[in-house]
């Protein structure tokens, strides 16, 4: 198989307005500050997406810290390099600790280019296959339960295979009870985004009465020990998200009983290669695995869909349609939801959809071009 030489990396900063506000225990999101990585390798291009937020709330990384790391530490280590496989990048970055989302932005772009160079869908390059994957949808915190029920009802009518609702202290058991009363035994889970402590165990035990698929990341991101103590007290499976930064941390969490379900996010893990290692771990242990989302544009969403096509992804992921968050996505065609609650795994080379140059230009606020041994050149819109 031909090798790839990283001749150039473009970092494209875009501003995208979401269709509506999305509130979690971290805060409320309406505008997304997204950085796209575009790699150039021997006439082939590939796209990846930085999934860090504007502020370091979900993780230690933010858009600005990731850009600093990319410019000063990550890109100098790979520009001009020739790699036989995208997983080879991890070795070149081994001395740079953490900064997984920054690494994933470029690593996933290289996966896209690598698959395109072979004329293969990204799903096949990762070990998955064609077809369709079930799609779940995430519902944020609302001002009142009635508004949330209206939104859940709309998503169920559209056919989503699973509903996830965000919770926090004061917005949890009554909300879940309202959803169950209104919609019955639908596939339902809750996501706390680290909003509780072990002192809340008796309160969280009340959720056991509602037959939830899981409660995602109830406690602190850096405390699998307390999660193990909590899981021992709950019949509802605990799913870990923020805590799982590698296959190794997942192994430790599973070894001590900190969770029964694992969420895979490409950015949080540092790229597809580590996501594949996590996939193999969960599959070998018979642990349910699903693909989470980070309010990505269509580029990041297509990477998620390709990953979710692997056989070890046993539960619907946050792989909702483009229209869930965007009036107009930057990919063509957009990701769409079928009546059976699935989205298609693209069959074309790489991520399988075109990136619309005109739409990308319309939302670009800055762009910088990095080549080996030269200062980056760039431009800023406006």
Describe the 3D structure:
- This protein has 382 residues and is α/β, with parallel strands linked by helices.
- The protein has helices spanning 63-78, 89-92, 100-117, 122-126, 145-158, 173-183, 201-205, 224-233, 247-255, 266-269, 272-285, 298-308, 357-363; strands spanning 4-5, 8-24, 27-41, 44-50, 82-83, 131-134, 136-139, 162-166, 188-191, 215-216, 238-240, 261-264, 288-291, 331-332, 342-345, 354-355, 364-370, 377-380.
- The protein folds into two domains: 4-119 and 355-380, 2-Layer Sandwich (Enolase-like, domain 1); 124-354, TIM Barrel (Alpha-Beta Barrel).
- The longest helix is centred in the first third of the chain and has 18 residues, at 100-117.
- The chain is globular, with a radius of gyration of 20 Å.
- The N and C termini lie far apart (43 Å).
């Amino acid at each position: 198989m031909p090798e790839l030489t990283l001749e150039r990396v473009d970092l494209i900063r875009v501003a995208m307005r979401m269709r509506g506000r999305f509130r979690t225990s971290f805060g409320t999101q309406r505008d997304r500050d997204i950085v796209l990585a575009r790699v150039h390798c021997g006439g082939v291009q590939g796209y990846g997406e930085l999934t860090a937020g504007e502020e370091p709330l979900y993780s230690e990384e933010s858009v600005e810290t990731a850009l600093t790391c990319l410019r000063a530490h990550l890109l100098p280590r790979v520009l001009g390099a020739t790699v036989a496989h995208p997983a080879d990048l991890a070795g070149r970055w081994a001395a740079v600790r953490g900064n997984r989302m920054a690494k994933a932005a470029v690593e996933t772009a290289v996966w896209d280019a690598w698959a395109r160079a072979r004329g293969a869908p990204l799903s096949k390059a990762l070990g998955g296959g064609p077809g369709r994957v079930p799609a779940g949808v995430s519902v944020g915190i609302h001002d009142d339960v009635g508004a949330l029920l209206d939104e859940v009802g709309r998503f169920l009518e559209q056919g989503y295979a699973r509903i996830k609702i965000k919770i926090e202290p004061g917005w949890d058991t009554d909300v879940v009870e309202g959803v169950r009363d209104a919609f019955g035994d639908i596939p339902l889970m809750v996501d706390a985004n680290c909003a509780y402590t072990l002192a809340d165990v008796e309160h969280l035990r009340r959720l056991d009465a509602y037959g939830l698929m899981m409660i995602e990341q109830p406690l602190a991101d850096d405390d699998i020990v307390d999660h193990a103590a909590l899981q021992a007290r709950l019949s509802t499976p605990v799913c870990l998200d923020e805590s799982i930064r590698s296959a190794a941390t997942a192994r430790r969490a599973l070894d001590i009983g900190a969770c029964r379900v694992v969420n895979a996010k490409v950015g949080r893990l540092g790229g597809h290669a580590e996501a594949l290692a996590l996939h193999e771990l969960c599959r070998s242990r018979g642990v349910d695995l699903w693909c989470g989302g980070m309010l990505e544009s269509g580029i990041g969403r297509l990477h998620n869909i390709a990953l979710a096509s692997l056989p070890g992804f046993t539960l619907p992921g946050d792989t909702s349609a483009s229209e869930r968050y965007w009036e107009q996505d930057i990919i063509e065609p957009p990701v769409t939801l079928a009546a059976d609650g699935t989205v298609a795994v693209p069959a074309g080379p790489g991520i399988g959809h075109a990136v619309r140059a005109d739409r990308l230009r319309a939302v670009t606020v800055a762009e910088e071009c990095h080549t080996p041994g030269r200062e980056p050149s760039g431009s800023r819109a406006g």
